[in-house]
Amino acid sequence: MPVIAVTTIDEFKALIEKSPKAVADFHASWCSACKTMKPVFEDLADKIPDVTFISVDIDDGVDLAYEYGVTAMPTFKLFDNGKIVEEIIGAKKPALLAAMTKLAQPPAPASTDISVSAATAA
User: Site Contributes to redox potential value: which residues (predicted)?
Assistant: First the structure.
């Protein structure tokens, strides 16, 4: 799946709302650490089709960076059903890979065990 570049809060929120799982890369074109992480982010987008990958250049999306409390670049925010579940600040490839692996996992099935007390009470 390609990385989707957004510049407005409305575009961003629409993607987050329609995507069960998403990750946003808040970066700047002048940031060397961001340039290091860009190919990693794009590679993950190619390998994990069930997650929406969003790119936000903070110079073009100042309001977005402010809205989501971005104070350093790169900042990666991972969303599950519209809620931020993890944040990674800095060019931390191992942390991003681990977080993406966790986010991409399907939810654990609900337990089908019936408690003994509930079974005997009937």
Answer: 32-33
In the predicted model, is pLDDT for residue 65 greater than 80?
yes
Task: Tell me whether residue 39 is one of the annotated catalytic residues.
Answer: no
Q: Give percent above pLDDT 70 in the chain.
A: 87
Query: What is the pTM (predicted TM-score) of this model?
Result: 0.86
Backbone φ and ψ of 80, nearest 5°: -130, 115
Q: Is 8 an active-site residue? A: no
- Annotated active-site residue in 24, 28, 31, 73: 31
Token pair of 57 as six digits: 């250049």
> Please, which residues bridge with residue 52 across strands?
22
